[in-house]
Amino acid sequence: MANIKSAKKRILIINKRTARNRRIKSHLKAIIKNFDAALASSDLDTAKEKLALAEKRLKKAAAKGTIHRNAAARKTSRLTKRFNQAKAAQ
Fold first, then answer.
1. How far does the chain reach from its first CA to its final CA, in angstroms?
2. Alpha carbon distance 4, 14 (integer Å)
3. Whole-prediction pTM value?
4. How far is CA 90 from CA 22, 42, 83, 85, 87, in A?
5. Domains of the chain (ranges, CATH numbers)
6. pLDDT per residue over 7-16, tens digit each?
């Protein structure tokens, strides 16, 4: 355990940021699962809405520093690619 006042404060700040990052990441996972479910049920209109939401939230998470911006771009690209493949299949 930290003895120095500034180190104690840093521990509190780290705990807050960790909680925020966990909340954001779990929310992202839920959004992506909703997109996957919409694609699996061949509901392209819902999938398009979920894709737009996922892209927005990924960019926001990257801006906050929760995930790396290249990771956000990679995930967005993969989701878009899967959506376009599903659209072409119909």
1. 59
2. 15
3. 0.86
4. 37, 9, 11, 9, 6
5. 5-89 (1.20.58.110)
6. 999 999 999 9
